[in-house]
Specification:
265 residues; Spore Coat Polysaccharide Biosynthesis Protein SpsA, Chain A; three-stranded mixed sheet; seven-stranded mixed sheet; alpha/beta; 34% helix
């Protein structure tokens, strides 16, 4: 089944490794998909007020959150890096693109999509819904407690605050799918969103159905030698690659090899 898919990439440019990912892999991927993949579009999502200088060459493949007051969604004492900016720009993108796509895949700059297996996965799957490789199954609330987000004076005073939300599972924001109905539901229920917690956890609160995708993603850590990374990329059938906490030097070294052998296509 052919599905038109939008890849939504949480983007920022305040770290050298992020700028590297934008200028190398994501630029090449966007140019490739625009030219050769009519069913696959890639969008980098940036926050309101953020300079577009690092993204100007990507044109319409950049979506900027227009909400200049998005920080008002969260009390000042609960604001942390990325909160609520990541969630705000994601909801805006789903709103803008809703109705145009059959599936949405949310990921980060520190990821790679292997285009051919990714498209095969999306087209061959009977049903796309809230899903991803890394799932905290029936553990959302217990994870909030373990991370010290619950208690007097904390972001969530008492777990009973979450009783209106049916979900208790969340999928890692490094890569998860939503179908059009789920995306539209997310937008329509803006007033129910918990803007003051991590965006992937907030998404999990909203949905009581999920799926864990076996063998969909591969993690590469910076402790692995570059030659071994390339061997794993050649061998894997995974559609999504997570580059876990790479320093810019490692990211650049891997990209030099990938330029010679573009395994992501």
């Amino acid at each position: 089944m052919s599905r038109r898919t939008a890849v939504l990439v949480i983007a920022a440019d305040h770290q050298p490794v992020y700028r590297h990912y934008i200028q190398s892999y994501w630029t090449d991927l966007i140019e490739h998909t625009n030219a050769a993949c009519p069913d696959l579009d890639v969008f980098l999502l940036i926050e309101s007020g953020m300079s577009r200088q690092a993204f100007v060459h990507l044109g319409d493949n950049v979506i900027q959150d227009p909400d200049t007051n998005y920080r008002a969604l969260v009390p000042k004492r609960h604001r942390r890096p990325g909160v609520p900016g990541i969630l705000s720009k994601t909801v805006h993108a789903l709103d803008v693109l809703g109705g145009d796509y059959d599936a949405f895949f949310r990921t980060n700059l520190s990821s790679m999509i292997k285009v051919t297996p990714f498209q095969q996965f999306v087209h061959n799957k009977d049903e796309i819904g809230y899903s991803g490789a890394w799932v905290w199954d029936d553990a959302l609330r217990s994870d909030l407690v373990a991370q010290n987000w619950v208690g007097a004076g904390r972001i969530i005073e008492d777990l009973s605050e979450l009783d209106r939300h049916l979900g208790n599972t969340f999928v890692s924001g490094s890569g998860f799918f939503l179908n059009p109905a789920e995306a539209a539901s997310r937008v329509a229920r803006r007033n129910e969103i918990r803007w003051d917690i991590a965006d992937d956890v907030s998404v999990g609160l909203m949905f009581d159905r999920h799926e864990q995708l076996a063998d969909f993603s591969l993690v590469l850590s910076p402790s692995i030698a570059i030659d071994e990374m390339m061997s794993r990329l050649r061998a894997t059938s995974a559609s999504h690659i997570r580059l876990q906490h790479f320093p810019v030097e490692t990211a650049e070294a891997l990209w030099q090899e990938i330029q010679r052998e573009p395994l992501w296509k």
